[in-house]
Design goal:
Helices cover 33% and strands 15% of the residues. The protein has two helices and three strands; from the N terminus they run αβαββ. A hairpin with a 2-residue loop joins strand 2 and strand 3.
Amino acid sequence: MTSPLATATEVVPADRLRGRVRVPSDKSVSHRALIANALAGGPADVTVRAPGFDVHSTAQCLRGLGVEVVGTASGFHVE
């Protein structure tokens, strides 16, 4: 049975998206920010307030996949 709220929507990729997003600090957000920016394919700075071993591990995994992730004083730079 199909929901009456279900509709088909086509999402067209934007040519370019720029901006800054500020979200409450949370380790899971740090992981998601690194992964999302790696998938975005453009340069991004990810500020991490308290990077634990697991966040550094996520960065290392992305490096293993060929993503340029550089540690900075405030977090990471992703290319």
